[in-house]
């Protein structure tokens, strides 16, 4: 026995550890088994082994991000279907259901106007580009969407932008005015198990993933509320009209037979927006006659759409899109005062 004790004291034990690879992002529900093995010899006997194991199941990590992709979004007054696009990314380790809700005109944030929410829409083609013809899956407050682990989903929150400045300062919304919309994304696992908005990151939801397997929230309150901003792009387009008269005596009296040269100047003087498709029209005054071939744009004979229209006795000049970067546009034409 003494010899055996001495041999036992001289045992050389080799301990090995085997386990499944547990990298960051290991799927919830994965069973991880950890086995330790001791190998030793006793007397003339070698290769004796002893093992001990421990097993656990990976819990669910509820983690996600919500980003407003196109905020701030430039809009014009009185426009429909203006959507802030949100990208939801499930960065947790399991497929998760998310509860959606949206609100506009958020009092706590102030703002210059209140957008009117139309609806939330799920992006159908995965491009993230809002298309009211394609993205027709309508979502109501409280609806759920399912996003797989490492998956993404675009949600469009569409609003109508009002025409009238609510402060009554100007007829239209002013350049630079801001309005807000907000998308709230909540973990369904957290909500369905009585989760609170005051829950901190790291809060454990018992059996949240499955019986005997917990879930842990990495997002405080189990939800993200992200504000998107609308910024009005408006412009101030000025239009001035003057006349110069040359009578038949070389003077400037408005006598029958006198020639009147009208000058119209269009100019965008303020704002970050663009006036689309500007067209200037002018009726030839009663008691006068248009002088053929005198219509000019920026001193050059006008040859664009419209021109002098005999059927209505008027002129029409297309200026196109105009912004503060556009030079002033000058229109000229002549009439003669009818003689008796």
TrEMBL record:
Residues 245-337 form the DUF11 domain. InterPro entries: DUF11_rpt, OmcB-like_DUF11. Pfam families: DUF11. Keywords: Signal. Residues 1-23 form the signal peptide. NCBIfam families: B_ant_repeat (TIGR01451). This is Conserved repeat domain protein.
């Amino acid at each position: 026995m003494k010899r055996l004790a001495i041999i036992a004291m001289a045992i050389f034990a080799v301990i090995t550890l085997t386990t499944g690879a547990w990298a960051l992002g290991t799927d919830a529900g994965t069973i991880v088994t950890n086995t330790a093995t001791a190998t030793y010899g006793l007397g003339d006997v070698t290769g004796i082994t002893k093992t001990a194991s421990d097993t656990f199941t990976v819990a669910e990590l509820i983690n996600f991000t919500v980003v407003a992709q196109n905020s701030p979004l430039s809009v014009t007054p009185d426009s429909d279907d203006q959507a802030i696009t949100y990208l939801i990314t499930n960065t947790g380790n399991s497929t998760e259901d998310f509860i959606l809700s949206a609100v506009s005109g958020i009092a706590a944030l102030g703002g210059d106007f209140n957008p009117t929410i139309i609806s939330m829409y799920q992006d159908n083609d995965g491009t993230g580009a809002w298309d009211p013809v394609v993205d027709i899956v309508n979502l109501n407050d409280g609806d759920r969407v399912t996003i797989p682990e490492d998956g993404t989903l675009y949600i469009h929150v569409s609003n109508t932008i009002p025409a009238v400045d609510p402060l009554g300062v100007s007829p239209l919304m002013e350049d630079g005015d801001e309005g807000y919309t907000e998308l709230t994304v909540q973990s369904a696992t957290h909500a369905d198990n009585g989760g609170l908005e005051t829950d901190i990151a790291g809060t454990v939801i018992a059996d949240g993933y499955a019986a005997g397997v917990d879930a842990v929230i990495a997002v405080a309150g189990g939800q993200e509320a992200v504000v998107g901003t609308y910024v009005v792009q408006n412009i101030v387009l000025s239009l001035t009209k003057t006349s110069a008269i040359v009578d038949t005596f070389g003077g400037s009296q408005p006598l029958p037979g006198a020639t009147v040269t009208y000058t119209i100047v269009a100019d965008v003087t303020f704002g970050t927006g663009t006036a689309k498709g500007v067209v200037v029209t002018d009726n030839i005054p009663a008691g006068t006659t248009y002088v053929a071939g005198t219509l000019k744009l920026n001193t050059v004979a006008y040859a664009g759409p419209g021109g002098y229209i005999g059927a209505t006795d008027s002129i029409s000049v297309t200026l196109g899109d105009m912004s503060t970067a556009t030079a002033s546009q000058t229109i000229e034409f002549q009439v003669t005062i009818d003689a008796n």
